[in-house]
Amino acid sequence: MPMEGPGSHDLSLLEFLYRAPVAMLQTDGDGQVQLMTPRAAQLLLPLAPNSALENLFDVLEPTLPTLRAEVAAFDAPRGTVLEGRRVTLRLPGMPAREQVLALGLLKLDDDRLVAWLVDVTSDEHERLALAEHLALATEAAGIGTFELRYDGSEPLHFNVQTFRLFGHPDGGSPQQIVREAVASAEIARLAAWVAPLRDGREADSVEFEIRLPDGQSRWLAAKGRLSQGCPAPGRSVVGVIWDITEQRRAQAALEAQRVAERASRAKSEFLSRLGHEIRTPLNAIVGFAQMLQRGAVVPLAAEHRQAVAHIADAGRHLERLIADLTDLSLIETGTVRLDSAAVDLGALIDEVLHEADAPAAARQVTLRRALPEGRLQVLADRTRLRQVLANLVSNAIKYNRPDGDVVVEVRRDVASWRIAVGDTGLGMSQAQQKSLFEPFNRLGRESSGIPGTGIGLVLTRELVEAMGGTLEVRSEPGCGSEFGFALPAAASQAPPPAPPRALQSRDDLRGRVLAVEDNPVNAVLLQSFFNWRPGVELSIAGSAAEALELARRSAPDLLLLDLFLPDRPGLELLREMRERDGLAMPCIVISASALPSDIEAARNAGVDLYLTKPLDVDRLLHAIDTLLGTVA
User: What are phi and psi of 489, to 5 degrees?
Assistant: First the structure.
């Protein structure tokens, strides 16, 4: 019906509203329809009884049962009663379908209402699809969501994945679940974390521990923020939550590994220092014992020679213990160095058995060898193989019976030589064999009176494996034991010439030797060694500064150098002598350090020979004879 006095713009506006896709209606205060656009009829008539849309409230009441009450409660003379309210209508038909409308309601005066509806079905479907995709993505990633609503009761809401994270896949009361799973101190910390979020401020993610219903402990992390679409006072904090238990365990394992590595380094450093401190006085004990045994000091009676032999044996035993401890530490850190070469196995076995003669005789044990004819050569590190054989033979003697036998047997095994050390001693049970290679475990023989630390076999197995073999054990209680391993056979080579026995006086050798040794007792020992070389002039310096002064006054033909001097490192002194002073003399390092890193550093510095304390007098003098003979 035309309105009185309307302008042309009013008619245009009415025409637009009439044709717009927005459904519009005008009703009285009770919802009775007075006017409606064609779009409103199209949307709502299918829901009206007998296709006659008379009352808007009646049509929407199945979906919005509180609509009449909300309109009645709106006591302002005019204004927006509601806006953007989502209404889902179930349209009749085959099949039935749902339509989602956004509803707005405006009060014009006491008896007039204007309603408008917009079809948002496609938007709602997209929103639901997006929500489903998001739910699938978070579930696949193990990420849950939560919402903490501040509407007076502050209820907490979880999605399905969050219930799973708390060990309640079937749901339940989130508040009760949290109270049961989280300790009170952790709840207080979470409340402090949420406080700035509620005020719209940022906060880092938080980590907390929970206890699942089965008693298992897990760690969760959460990140949240204030919901942007929820105005005060109905604001809420929304966020995500995920399981970080494996990350925490990995971090703990990594930290434990770092602690273990630091402890291992500390242990290696301690053993290195311990070895250095023990080897220095041990050098004097073993060195003077050697001189006494050879009659280099005074001739000894038979009983005195036996006493000195015990001193020398005890010193060498202590040296082996220190070497075993250091080597075990190096193997644990993966820094042990092996130099593989062809080794004359027969000669090496003879050396080991010769060294073991005295302890075998003391325990009334007979040593025997069972080797095939011909020269036997294996590919191995000679020093380490000697150490392995010496450990096995020593154990076979110590744990044997009186009048027992120790047999070192070698036999061919395809492309290898198999070496076995057998005894007729106590033997071992299966239980003892299982604990055989545990460090410091002596299998209950601590009170047997037999000396040992329980690391010899551990080190032996590690060295055998480092050379490419496997240590095998066969034993029965009362029937003795046999330890065997195989190493690759090496091509036959001509035997190296045996070094001459050096501890013989030589009046023909000439030269000047400068020894840098800060330990007074070891300095005296060196002087006693050189009594067998009366034609050699020996000067001893107690520091690097003194050594430089002596070398510049009279250039030496040979330098004997300790690595650790009181005023500067030995290798630094050597570098200055050669580079600044132009002294090209050969150098022998005599050090209490047996660490591969120190030996490698000395080799890189151009040292001709590296000897560790305690010194073998024959080897030292033979090296001096060779190097001074080369200089001459």
Answer: -70, 145
What amino acid is encoded at 325 in this protein? L
Q: Give dist(CA 565, CA 562) in Å, integer.
A: 7
Alpha helical stretches, state H, 504-569: 520-530, 544-553
The DSSP annotation for 358-405 comes to HHHHHTT-EEEEE--SS--EEEE-HHHHHHHHHHHHHHHHHTS-TT-E
| Dist. CA 100–CA 86, nearest whole Å | 7
Structure confidence by residue, pLDDT tens digits, 86-124? 888 776 655 656 778 888 899 888 899 999 888 887 765
Q: What Rg value do the Cα atoms of the chain yield, rounded?
A: 47
Strands 481-488 and 416-423: antiparallel
Handedness of CA 271, 275, 276, 281 (dihedral sign): positive
DSSP element (H, E) containing 43: helix 38-44
State percent of the chain over pLDDT 90.
25
pLDDT at 113: 92
Span of 69-83, 109-123, 264-278 with lowest mean pLDDT: 264-278
Q: For 272-302, give one letter per residue: b (16+ CB within 10 A) or e.
A: beebbebbbbbbbbbbbbbbbbbebeeeeee
Q: Confidence class of residue 500 from pLDDT cuts 50, 70 and 90?
A: very low
Highest mean pLDDT among 94-108, 256-270, 458-472, 491-505: 458-472
Give me the count of residues in the chain: 632
Q: Rounded to the nearest 10 degrees, what angle do helices 617-631 and 520-530 cross at?
A: 60
Contact 590, 623 (CB under 8 A): no
Mind listing the pLDDT tens digit for each residue in 557-582? 999 999 889 999 999 999 999 988 88
Please answer whether residues 544 and 564 qualify as being in contact, where contact means their C-beta atoms are separated by less than 8 angstroms: no
Dist CA 610 CA 337 (whole Å)? 15
Of 100, 90, 122, 119, nearest to 22 by C-alpha is 119
Rounded to whole angstroms, the Cα distance separating 613 from 31 reads: 110
Alpha-carbon torsion angle 426, 431, 435, 437, nearest 10: 60
The number of CA neighbours under 13 Å toward the Cβ of 182 is 22
Residue with tokens 């579930």, as numbered in its chain: 139
Question: What is the DSSP secondary-structure string of 311-374?
Answer: HHHHHHHHHHHHHHHHHHHHHHTT------EEEEHHHHHHHHHHHTHHHHHHTT-EEEEE--SS
**Is residue 441 a contact partner of residue 435, using CB atoms and an 8 Å limit?**
yes
| CA atoms 354, 355, 356, 357: torsion sign | positive
Q: Specify whether the CB–CB gap between 497 and 490 falls below 8 A.
A: no
As a whole number, mean pLDDT of residues 452-468 equals: 76
Residue 612 bridge partners (DSSP): 591
